[in-house]
Amino acid sequence: MKKNILQAARVIRSKNAGPFELTLDIMFKNKHYFDLFRRRRLITARKIAALYNVRPRDILGIIYFEPARAVKITLRRYLPSGAPGDGDIYGAQQHAPLLDLNFSP
Amino acid sequence: MHDEMRVLSPTGILGYGFPEESFRRGLKRKPHLIGVDAGSTDPGPYYLGSGKSFTSRAFVKRDLRFLLTAGARLDIPLVIGSAGGAGARPHLEWCRGLIHEVAREEKLSFRMGVIFSDVSAARVLKARRAGDINPLPFAPPLTAEAVKACPYIAAQVGVEPIIRALRKDCRVVLCGRCYDPAVFAALPIAAGYDPGLAMHMGKILECAAIAAAPGSGADCVLGTLRRDAFILESLNPARKFSKLSTAAHTLYEKSDPCHLPGPGGVINLEKCAFRELAGGRVEVRGSRFEKTPDHWVKLEGARRTGFRSISIAGTRDPVMIAGIDDILKSVESQVQKMGRKTKLRGRMIFHVYGKNGVMGALEPRRRAAGHELGIVMEALAGTQEEADMLCSVTRSTLLHYGYPGRISTAGNLALLFSPSDIRMGAVYEFAVYHLMKIKDPAAFPLEVENIRDGKARS
What we know:
Strand order of the largest sheet of chain B: 12-13-9-8-1-2-3-7-4-20-21
Mean pLDDT of chain B: 95
Number of strands of chain B: 21
Shape of chain B: elongated
Order of helices and strands of chain A: EEEHHEEE
Oligomer: heterodimer
Number of helices of chain A: 2
Radius of gyration of chain A: 14 Å
Strand content of chain B: 25-35%
Strand content of chain A: 25-35%
Helix content of chain A: 10-25%
């Protein structure tokens, strides 16, 4: 049975990392889920690319950070912050597609 | 060197405010330094390009009044970084003007150092020719045209110019664009503390209480730096630092939590350890600062790309909502055809809220689910008049456009305002976001002024 990411995560958020990069943080509820995701590589560039309608090569990094029990995913910003057509200057509302992430426990 | 250095961070951004009680609790701890970061590129390119502040004048002055009077009365140095938000000359002068006002009103006396971090276009182009410029990931190529089109280019300076001002006995240091942690780390580093710990503590303090739980960008925090560790504590009993809240903050708005690049080097957190102490405090150790062989600073510049006018409307018609993408495309091409013989030049962007308005091309759910849509019509053109005209014609065309299957023939839009079209003024984009190699990291212009009983004397 697949589980939804919200069973494992307590924070899911997005923010600019400078005007040209968007960074997504998933913070896990406990060490068990953090280890599970890291060990089994449950988050891949291909999955994120599919969720965000982008090419896998625009996913710049998937980095696990143990002290915060978190994983950070950095994407190339589709448009630089404030460029014509950009709808989210701070990049603070780009996390929602991650809520559709499912995993097998 | 003291056994420890206590650093008070009152608020995440100068002008965001803070509770007076928290600030007073902080002063009772006899801090050796008050530091406050005033800037960010987060609000977008407009503020850097236009020379304006993104924080309100009244609230920046309110915060300054607390900081300057406490600093002068208790003889605590005050360091302000990235003055006026973007930290270029007009931002710095704006903030300096507010400091003079407060000093006059409160009859304060202090010596102030003002550090200019602007870099001229000529200097940037010279550095480029010498091979001393590197782009940051995804920044556009640095053309001579782009450099010259930026009204201001500011370097994000490190601790060195601030240390220089502090060594000249300045008790208030007002710095242009500045690496956020440097505001808090300059005095400790000058006093011999470990730069890795000082910079990492600064990285957390620059956001004030955001790293506590519950987090807030508008509440005070005390950082205590020792030889081999630093301790963070909230100055509001309603908040606490935990191992997790502190570590989690390390991720915030950075692409790599373990390596934080800044002027002159990288904060390396691979071996960093967090430990909870009694009273909602957290101790951090193991952070290291690794110098790079050459000293690189980040340059920021925004160029003007044109002017903007917008109109905001809603639609509640199910037929229109079902066909919205095609309708907007047809309206755009009809407007362009009509404009061929006039001066109707520019570009239309429709932000359709309720249908990909927030995420645009990144949106995985492509279909509108709601019974109503919000439409922001954005006209971009080379002059304000052209943008106004394009916005007006597009609005009126969309209002009366006969789309296929239309049954509501009196008007397609619920317009929000009268006047329906809003002039937004100049539009900017980030054009310089590059690293520049410099020889002397302290060599940025410093002006020192003595203020006696509120009056400036040079």
